[in-house]
Amino acid sequence: MKRKPSRTLCWKPLGCFIILVLGILLTFASPSSASSPSPSSQQTPMVLRIRQLDGSIQRIQFEEGQSSSSLTLQQVIEKSRQILSAAEVSEALTDQEEKECALQFGKYCLPLVQTDSEEEDESKLRQKTLEELGIRHGSLLTLAPKTNLGKPKGGLQPKPKEKKAATTTAKTDRWDPYPDLAKDYEAALRQVERRKRNAGKLSFADLSELHRSLHVVEAQPAAALHRLYLCPTVAERFATAVQPKPSSSSSSSSLSSPTSSVPRVALLLGTIHKERRHPKKKRAAKTSLSSTTESEDYCQVAKVQAVWEPPQQPSKQQQSLLCYDASELLQLREKHPQVLNVAQWLGLVPVGWMYSYSEDRHGNDKEKQKKKRHKDDGDSSEGGALPVFGLDVKTGARLQIEFMKHLGREDGQRFVTVAMHGPTGATEAFQFSNVAVQMVAEDMLMVEDLEGGSKNDMATPQRFVPTRHAFLVDGRETTTLDSVLCLVNTALLQQQGSFVGQVSGGGTSSSSSGVKSNNPYQLTKKMRKALVQAASSSTPGALLELLCNFQVLVAVSQDLPQDEMQALVETVRKFARGLKKTTTLDPGVLECLLNVLNQGS
Fold this sequence. Notes:
Structural class: alpha/beta
Number of helices: 23
Shape: elongated
Radius of gyration: 40 Å
Strand content: 15-25%
Oligomer: single chain
Strand order of the largest sheet: 14-11-10-9-7-8-6-15
Largest sheet: 8 strands, mixed
Mean pLDDT: 76
């Protein structure tokens, strides 16, 4: 029996043919759908990016059909002027500055406002298309005032004005004693406010940046100097000078009070030495196994060898507030250069300053307690008094900054503040922390000088001082600085100075410095007479022994020529070092000195 052929074999070629015919018909049936581009392939509108005056970037989107080949530069400028007239930008510019804005791209810089005096090249440039100028989709253009433009890149860029250079110079006037601790809170605040104005809110990064621009005030464990050696003759003489003079009048003056004293200031000059941190510690025998870190046991100390008191004339307000007059000391290099010259010839450097304060300063007088002078001090009338107020911190930091400028940051920071209680003579030594000195350099402390006669509370010395902006204490922001946080305690010891004044008997003259209290450049009659007698005396070294007085040398330098004065000071320096038998004064210098002494008498 024969097998019948399968029907599926007949339908297979027929099905393939039908599918092929249907595909061809569908292709030619909708030609519009095949030729139409997809939405993603459609031409996107022209977009340019404009950097605004505040640094932010804004997108400018043009209408469909406008491309780089059809858009002209003038159309872009008109669009930029619309951005410039926005509220966020116009608040930062005046009308005149808005007219002087320009559009910068590549080597070209074209003003936004077209004037009649415009050059022909600039007019032709406005009519060129973006394609001719090389500006494409997504290009970045800059919108900036002419005063903010740098050096001209081409003939079309305007010349910057001089007021920009003057502003830059004013910002660089501040000198930072500690650049690592320098902050610019105002600049950081302006940037954060600009970002907030553009974005409408602040981010965590903005708050962190503003937080990093604040000073961190904390207790500083150590300073540049470990201890200070103060001459007892200097301290006794200074304490005698600040004692109030007995007055016969019965008027109730603050200076006639038994607890009052005359506030004064003085400059301390000395030498810097290196000695063991613990002098009484027994030294271990050195062996081949000795530690190499033995140098850590040494520290730097300052020894006061001389003192100089500047002219002091307190104003009426300073007298009423029992404050010292440190104006001449703050202008030492400008008004009294001979003081630093004599110190340099003697091998001395400024190591600190000393001031006295009265008992009434701390509110121990009941009438003084009613004033705001001690309103922030927590000490009671029975308790101890704080020797350093905000005014003292600012004065001492300003002195340290001046010496750091001329002696160098490392040598100038070895500066000590010595506070003496006038009625009792109790003396304490401090150094200011690095952050406190940097804050004074940035003019953060709102302490006004008393020289101008200001009656503001900020001119009243007090322990707690307001600041211009916030700073951090224990992680919290505050605008009131406690003077105690600025202090670094310094050990105070005694040692006789080499140029504090001696008499021919070999003892120290602590009753008088040899110069008048109201004029440090004029010798007293007693000292002048003693110098003339010592010059004609047969006792060797009698004159040089009297000249071992820094204040006497400064007074003599006022009338003696500089060459003879330098030779005289160098001879006195050799004599003070111990070469007393072999050191003699040059006859020519001695003759000039006698002429000066005889003229004064």
